[in-house]
Amino acid sequence: MHKNITQVQLKNGMRVMLKEIHTAPIISSWIWYKVGSRDESTGKTGISHWTEHMMFKGTKKFPGGILDKAISREGGRWNASTSRDSTRYYETMPAAKIDLALRLESDRMTKSIFDAKEVASERTVIISEREGSENEPMFLLGEAVQHASFRVHPYHHEIIGDMADLRTITRDDLYNHYRTYYVPNNAVLSLAGDFDTKSMLKRIKELFEPIPKGNIPPRLARPEPERKGELRLTVEGPGETAFTQVAYPFPNATHPDYFALQVLESLLNGASGLSYKTCRLYRALVDKGHVVDISGWSESTIDPFLYRITLVHRPDKKPEDALSALDDEIKKIQDKPVSAAEVHRAVKQARAVFAYGSENITHQAFWMGYTSMFSDYSWYTTYLDKLAKVTPKDVQRVAQIYFQPSRRVVGNYIPKGKAA
Amino acid sequence: MATKPKSSLPSPEDVYQTTLPNGITVLARSNYNSPSVNMGGYLPAGAIFETDEKLGLADFVTAMLMRGTQTRTFDSIYNELETVGASLGFDSGVHNASFGGRALVEDLPLLLKLLSESMRTPTFPKDEMERLRTQILTGLALRAQDTSDMADLLFEQFLYADHPYGKPSDGYPETIQAISRKDLETFHRLHFGPRGMVIAIVGAIQPKKAVEAVAKVLGDWTVSSQKEPPALPPLKPLKKTIRKHHQISGKSQSDLVVGTIGPTRRSPDFMAASLGNSVLGQFGMMGRIGNVVREKSGLAYYAYSSLHSGIGPGSWEVAAGVNPKNLKKALDLIDTELRRFVKNGVTKDELADSQANYVGRLPLSLESNGGMVSAILNIHRYQLGMDYYQRYENMVRSVTRDDVVETARKYIDPERLVIATAGP
Question: CA separation (Å) from A103 to A12, A249, A389?
Answer without folding.
Answer: 17, 42, 44
